[in-house]
Q: What sequence folds into this?
């Protein structure tokens, strides 16, 4: 139970991978294609699931290190990764149950909405469009739009600025400790989904105001019961 009343949500900022779309299949397919071309061992799905969420550069570097490849292969791997990702983006991905309904409900509230991901912005915009989710967002920002990525608060602070709201009145909905750390440091309210990728850790180890099994189960102030609050 939390004695502090939850702030009203003046804006919603929502993560992409692991929150709106299950993109693990895309990451596994793209890494498989790149590592196959480079003659490197392939990594399994569980490894990729633990490693996504901190941007493509981090994923490639960590995967190269994991298979014992030379770090000097990074530049080639990054170029091949982008080429394959462009081809496969969204092909092995699915929108999570409850996302469409949840976004429709939030959109109907008439408050500004942004998608904020560590994925490169071009891939993020293309994926949202391919999955029919682009129309819900006033702004979409990716990992290469700002100087630093989540868990740094900068992307959230800049997104709030772009939406014209203060961080203290914005709600960040994500799937990982990365999202929560950025939200906490920016001063946003944190909501976490239980079904995404939290670096191999149980999501409820990460402090949040609400944990959701589906996006359409988000409870807004006025609807919140004490037990729904962390
Ligand atoms: O690491 C990525 O590429 C994407 O991560 P995010 O959408 O969960 O921020
Ligand atoms: Mg995520």
A:
């Amino acid at each position: 139970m939390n004695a502090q009343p939850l702030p009203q949500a003046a804006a919603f900022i929502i993560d992409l991978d692991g929150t709106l779309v299950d993109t693990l299949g895309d990451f596994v397919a793209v890494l498989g294609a790149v590592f196959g071309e480079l003659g490197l061992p392939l990594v399994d799905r569980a490894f990729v699931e633990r490693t996504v969420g901190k941007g493509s550069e981090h994923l490639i570097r960590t995967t190269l290190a994991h298979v014992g490849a030379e770090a000097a292969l990074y530049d080639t791997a990054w170029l091949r990764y982008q080429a394959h990702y462009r081809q496969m983006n969204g092909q092995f991905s699915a929108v999570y149950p409850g996302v469409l309904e949840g976004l429709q409900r939030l959109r109907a509230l008439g408050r500004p909405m942004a998608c904020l991901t560590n994925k490169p912005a071009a891939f993020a915009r293309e994926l949202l469009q391919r999955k029919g989710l682009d129309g819900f967002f006033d702004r979409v920002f990716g990992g290469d739009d700002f100087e630093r990525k989540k868990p740094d608060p900068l992307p959230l602070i800049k997104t709030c600025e772009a939406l014209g709201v203060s961080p203290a009145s914005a709600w960040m909905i994500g799937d990982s400790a990365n999202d929560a750390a950025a939200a906490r440091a920016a001063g946003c309210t944190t909501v976490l989904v239980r079904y995404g990728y939290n670096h191999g850790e149980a999501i409820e180890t990460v402090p949040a105001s609400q944990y959701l099994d589906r996006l359409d189960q988000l409870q807004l102030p006025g609807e919140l019961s004490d037990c729904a609050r962390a």
Notes: Residues 157 and 186 are 6 Å apart (CA to CA). The chain has two domains: 11-22+93-228, 24-88. The first helix runs from residue 24 to 37.
